[in-house]
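ok so I'm stuck.
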Amino acid sequence: MFQDYLFFAVDTKVQYCYRMLHLSNLMQEVKNIHHLNVPRALLLADSMLGCVLLSSVLDYEERINLRIQCSGDFTIGAETTFQAETKGYIECEESTPLVQSLDKGENLIAELQVRSLRSQRNNVGLSEGFTSSQTNSIEVALNEHLQSSFQMNTTLHLSSWIDDLSGEIQAFGVIYQELPGISEEATQKLRNHIQGLPSMRDLFYENNDPDILAQKLIPDAIKAVKSINPKLVCSCSQEKVEGVLVTLPLDELKDIINKSENIEMKCHYCSTNYHVPIEKVMQMYASRNYSPDNSSEIN
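replied:
not stuck anymore, here's the structure
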């Protein structure tokens, strides 16, 4: 099994570029962390493939956050930095008919809503995009989101599946981007080639050697740019959890204290559990509520 990679390349005439992504090992780790069944793991794998690939074509973005809503019952979250540091999660209402059907392998999703947040380097502002697609395919929904919200001549192809022999998850995808000044002839040649490709799964099984895959994905000679290894990275910490709590309105902090309950929080992305004792919450309240003329006593 090859290690995970994100391979950057252009055609030798520099009319278009593409990124080839192998994410199987990372997705197996995510599947184990979140204890996901197969249908949920495959949906999350497609979403994280898409998130890493999108981040790879946004030159000035620090990170991209995707939130994919499958009705109100099922939400997929993914986030990736420009260095291909990524993470993802699934939230769902276990007892709803949609989730129960998904867990049986029946994809009855009628609509996918995609929301993206992009932060630029050295810029505190965020760029936001939102699309709603009448499809149950993550690939289709993300391609429509690209056309509408990013306004780039790009195309995504994704495949996630369970290997019959190993029983482990496999995830492979590619994103193409037409560069400014591309000729009509080159555009048509590339699009015809893309349309004639088999699924990413079938292409991977024909020969999973990265060098051969890279050559098969485009109709022209390639020029490699770089290759990096995606990593599963979560930036959560005890300090960040307490930082969120200390910014709560004073009446909410007071309500927590009056209930005399310790705070238990779990990170969506890595499933790490955090514990904040009630004494710590009382200290937060006292520091926020203190003034020389105002008692910090809680009634």
